[in-house]
């Protein structure tokens, strides 16, 4: 199809499609004549994936590029392939450095104290979760724990177990869903999209449920 | 205390503290002499809150400002006060428009079709959750649903109920935790921090559990 049709079917403006191609988020179309470029169904699908990552997942273009790259170079084993994509995702959380902040402040704030890291390890042991040492979600969890402790909300951490149980029940569903397609490529794509979109869905559901719980209590 | 001590105790560089004051994230210290400004324990606490919002919550400075403003102007009822802060949070998700994208593309992508909105309403009805019509989490959930449907992953939506159950179990803990302090101001601050930090913790736990589930299956 021509770029106009791709734009119409995806709801993405032509200028934006060209921007994605320039940025490497979308492979270029096939040039069939001097001034005609053809796009396939695969382009449409990829375009929808890019929009899900950018709009729903609210990832940066740079992170989306890393994820797309991991997708386009699938590994031989599901764990490695899915894991690599998931790790690219975790590393890609937008930098939180405000303009004017210096590097030291950032490093200081993200320095993970031993207590928080131990807390993460204890939790993994308690639930018997085997997780590779380089999984970036370890540091993500430790930084959340450190922040809660810095704010004298240490009692909040006792509730972490309820969080862990909820997360596990959700993760079982995630993996089941991801492993259902026939090909590894599709599995990885599903795991990725569902991880990104699922975070948004879970966060929205949590806010809705919070309000419902508060209203019920009044 | 002087700015140097505030910097030391918080682990935040002096230049960054001054940036926060300039941006209205931190109230200015009290000028006691011509060249001496004093900061209190309240400043230290606020500084830790700002870091939690920016570093752990990875919010933009603009969003953090809106949240701080909601905190500094508490309402009379817990629901209104906590709700206002939570809504400021939801509205503040960073814009997902890549440079080069035009407004039309954004509007098109975020346009919520009736089917997704109906799905959200059905879910709220099914669980008996009372949620105000202007709660921005409704649109957040609908956009996640629309994205999944656009990617032909409609079967993923059957799993939304497991997500809703997990979110509700977490929300009960959240509200319990938030309502435990004596003052409304503290309750609102707790709800806010824990909502932001809890999202990060939940997302990290989900990734850890996903890997554990995959490893177990292999």
From TrEMBL, chains A, B:
Q: Show where the HTH merR-type domain sits.
A: 1-70
GO MF term set: DNA binding; DNA-binding transcription factor activity
Q: Which SUPFAM superfamilies does the UniProt record give?
A: Putative DNA-binding domain (SSF46955)
The UniProt keyword set, sorted, is: DNA-binding
Q: Name the InterPro entries for this protein.
A: DNA-bd_dom_put_sf, MerR-type_HTH_dom, MerR_fam
Keyword Transport assigned: no
From the Swiss-Prot or TrEMBL record, give the protein name.
MerR HTH family regulatory protein
């Amino acid at each position: 199809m021509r770029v106009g049709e791709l734009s119409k079917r995806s709801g993405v403006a032509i200028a934006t499609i060209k921007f994605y191609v320039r940025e490497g988020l979308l492979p270029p179309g096939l040039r069939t004549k001097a001034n005609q470029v053809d796009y396939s169904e695969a382009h449409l699908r990829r375009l929808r994936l890019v929009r899900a990552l950018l709009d729903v997942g609210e990832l940066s273009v740079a992170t989306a590029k890393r994820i797309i790259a991991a997708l386009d170079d699938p590994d031989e084993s599901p764990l490695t392939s899915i894991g690599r994509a998931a790790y690219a995702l975790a590393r890609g959380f937008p930098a939180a450095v405000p303009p004017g902040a210096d590097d030291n402040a950032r490093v200081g704030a993200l320095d993970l104290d031993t207590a928080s890291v131990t807390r993460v390890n204890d939790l993994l042991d308690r639930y018997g979760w085997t997780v590779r040492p380089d999984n970036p979600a370890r540091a993500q969890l430790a930084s959340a724990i450190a922040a809660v402790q810095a704010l004298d909300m240490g009692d909040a951490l006792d509730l972490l177990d309820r969080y862990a149980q909820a997360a596990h029940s959700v993760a079982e569903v995630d993996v089941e869903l991801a492993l259902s397609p026939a090909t590894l490529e599709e599995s990885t794509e599903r795991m990725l999209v569902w991880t990104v979109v699922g975070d948004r869905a879970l966060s929205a559901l949590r806010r809705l449920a919070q309000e419902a719980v508060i209203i019920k209590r009044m």
